[in-house]
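Structure first, sequence second, as always.
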């Protein structure tokens, strides 16, 4: 296995965590390069369910080097909670490395996230409320505090003395009832810094060395292409660059060092938070998919909006990311439906359209045009072993037709098919002929 990036091709929650956990069997290093604890990556190993927010999913495989790269924003208290939780469950975090260049999410970032959302009234983004936007704004505005500074008590105190009163002024101006208590926050952050210090280091050099040594490295994307700050459905997006182009700057490697890019797409689509969603379903069908797919946010527990697979979105994601393979997840969730639909293109003002307009009012007017497939029987857990052993030909005919259509229309080879939540409930077609 060479260096591989795993990238969400929709609006997040495609099953990236599970795919990374699966691929990590062959990896030596696993790296998060953007986003923060707005991410919620669920991984089910046997009967154990892990919900990872900051930590790369590969940390669940013993001995892998787990890196939180410079492009990530980190809530120190949440990260410490995750570390403690893993330790309690018998997992080692000895191989965790946190970039000294990564920015910290501060208490005022979380308050600002809430205050800004409240002011937006009808235009609310529906953020996760984790302070992601304000933390990235401060990074770009050169007011951020980096992990290397968080772990240096003198520097941290000096920075906080300046920035907390400034942020409290902003919070008050925005009408926030809560501001940050400087003394308490400083004490807490100094303590976090002390506890995180052993993990904070120059991860860029570590990755350069790993590449020189030809180590097998996995890069774990968070969020999805349609939540990208530049290319997503702005302003209903997250505040980082989620596409493969950011693997390089978010971790400090050269773009040349990346060999493969795996896109992850659900066999249908989900979205949490506000914003346009052309293939969205309502009513009974939405409820059926949401319930069977367990479509509730890993981070916030919010109900996810559900819709059919959108090939306009998938082709756009392919063009932006350059996928060399696709992981098609949660196909089992569609089992038992009478028919399964896929959006092939849109109709916009009476005309065929195959692109995502940047203007949201146009996107909202896009009507999906569907290709319909016969449904297939539910896959029983007892059958999965035989299917996984026997390969693609063991899947029901209409399911295979669906998969082959997605492959042809997206122009990307389907390398993995998700058949269930657990680690091994996955058909690996990477080295197999159909
Ligand atoms: P991520 O944010 O992209 O890592 O995805 P989440 O973990 O937020 O959401 C995906 C959910 O689907 C998780 O609960 C996974 O355990 C689950 N999942 C992943 N792949 C499959 C699959 O192929 N079938 C089923 N039934 N569940 C899956
Ligand atoms: P994973 O990595 C799904 C969404 C939020 C909101 C918008 C902005 O699990 O796929 P933010 O808190 O980032 O400022 O919120 O982005 N969002 C996600 N949706 N999965 C995620 O991550 C998400 N991270 C952010 O719901 O609409
Ligand atoms: Mg998620």
């Amino acid at each position: 296995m060479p260096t591989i990036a795993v990238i969400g091709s929709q609006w997040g929650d495609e099953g990236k965590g599970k795919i990374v956990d699966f691929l990590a069997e062959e990896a030596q290093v696993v790296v998060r390069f953007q986003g923060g604890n707005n991410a919620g990556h669920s991984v089910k190993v046997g009967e154990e369910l892990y919900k990872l927010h900051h930590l790369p999913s590969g940390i669940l495989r013993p001995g892998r080097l787990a890196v939180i790269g410079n492009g990530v924003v980190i809530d120190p208290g949440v990260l410490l909670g995750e570390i403690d939780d893993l330790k309690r469950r018998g997992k080692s975090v000895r191989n965790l490395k946190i970039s000294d260049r990564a920015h910290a999410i501060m208490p005022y970032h979380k308050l600002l996230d809430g205050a800004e959302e409240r002011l937006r009234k009808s235009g609310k983004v529906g953020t996760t409320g984790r302070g992601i936007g304000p933390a990235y704004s401060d990074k770009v505005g050169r007011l951020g505090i980096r992990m290397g500074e968080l772990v240096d008590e003198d520097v941290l105190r000096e920075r906080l003395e300046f920035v907390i009163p400034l942020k409290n002024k902003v919070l008050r101006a925005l009408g926030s009832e809560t501001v940050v208590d400087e003394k308490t926050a400083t004490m807490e952050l100094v303590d976090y810094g002390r506890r995180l210090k052993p993990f904070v280091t120059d991860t860029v050099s570590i990755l350069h060395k790993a590449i020189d040594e030809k180590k097998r490295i996995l890069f774990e994307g968070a969020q999805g292409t349609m939540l990208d700050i530049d290319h997503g459905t702005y302003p209903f997006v997250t505040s980082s660059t989620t596409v493969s182009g950011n693997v390089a700057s978010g971790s400090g490697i050269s773009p040349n060092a990346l060999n493969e890019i795996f896109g992850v797409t659900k066999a249908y689509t989900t979205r949490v938070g506000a914003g346009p969603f052309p293939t969205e379903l309502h009513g009974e069908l939405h409820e059926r998919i949401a319930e069977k797919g367990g479509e509730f946010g890993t981070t916030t527990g919010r109900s996810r909006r559900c819709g059919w697979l959108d090939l306009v979105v998938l082709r756009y994601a392919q063009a932006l990311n350059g996928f060399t393979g696709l992981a098609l997840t949660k196909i089992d969730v569609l089992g038992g439906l009478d028919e399964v639909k896929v959006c092939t293109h849109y109709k916009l003002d009476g005309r065929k359209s195959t692109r995502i307009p940047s203007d949201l009012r146009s996107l909202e007017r896009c009507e999906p045009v569907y290709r319909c497939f016969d449904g297939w029987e539910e896959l029983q857990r007892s059958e999965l072993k035989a299917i996984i052993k026997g390969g693609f030909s063991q899947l029901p005919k209409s399911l295979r037709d669906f998969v082959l259509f997605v492959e042809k229309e997206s122009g990307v080879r389907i390398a993995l098919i998700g058949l269930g939540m657990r680690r091994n409930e996955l058909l690996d077609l990477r080295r197999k002929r159909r």
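Margin note: The pocket of guanosine-5'-diphosphate (ligand 1) is lined by residues 8, 12-18, 40-42, 44, 294, 298, 329-330, 332-333, 418-421 (CB under 6 Å).
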